[in-house]
Amino acid sequence: MRSRFAWRRWGLVTLVNCSAAIAAVLAFGAWQRFETSRGVLTSTPKTPGFYELADDVGYIPKANARATVRAEADGQTVYDVDYTTGPDHFRTVPEPLGNPDACVLAFGASFTFGDGVRDDETYPAQIVSLSGGHVAAQNFAVSGSGLHQFLAGLQSGRFQRAVRCKPTDAVLVMIPSLIWRTSGVGNPWDNNGPRFRLGADGRPVRAGKFSDPAPYNWRRWVGLTPVSKGDAIALAKVVVVAAFGELRHSYPDIRTHLILYRVASWTDVGLNLDDLVSFEYDLHQAGATPIPLEAIMPRYRFEQRDYVLHPTDMHPNPRAYRLIADFVLRQVNPSARGEKRH
Q: What is the pTM of this model?
């Protein structure tokens, strides 16, 4: 009798504990969803009032806007610069000469937009200046954006409508964290951003925006990321390939270049070397071969401080952007390079 009572008691304790654990997990998941739902972007702490919402890409800098951005570390000024946009909503670059020999379209996030550097110090701007104006460039990057915005902006025609020259080359600079951003992980400011999913044919399909309800996603309910690491990598790969396909559809002769900026370890959150090597290989197999950063900045791994804004801010400095610009100029028609002009 005692044994039967003891088993019942322990069974009840186990049931109560399991119920409490499940309730705690669900509560944690609900708290995470609540925290994320508050992150719709209208501005950022660094650039208040600089952005506006957009149906196709989630958010975009305002047209003809200027923001003064400052940062300090240890009592020292890291940067104090202005960001300026033109009527097309994108960051300004110098005007090329008439009938330029080549035209480069630059895509990406803050590592292309140029967080912390002047308008004339971004790599698209330096492409124009280093070529003596013989190569045009346009900076279509938006700080904090992801691969999903790259594809969505091409699908909507936003980028194509802003093109002011005949494109010969397109460059995408991506950091590994863009893999997660493409699935809406780690970018709570981007709730209005376009959500993509893998279709039955393996191609990305637009599926609303990140803030739309996802009641059948059990991972959210238990506090996990909305997608697994494997699914995030798979989606990022097909989004890059689809975006390059959109570019070739609009500009059949365009050359596409993908620079994987993966040396800075702070961008590799949750992704190990094997993950990135596999990602690179799959992109190569799909016709979008990544260019490793070491091909552009051979000493970056060992002399990182020479190429970043500050040890507390790993965004590229003007020197790093000059090297990227030099590299891109080597990829376009040699006759368009500044050093070939006399």
A: 0.84
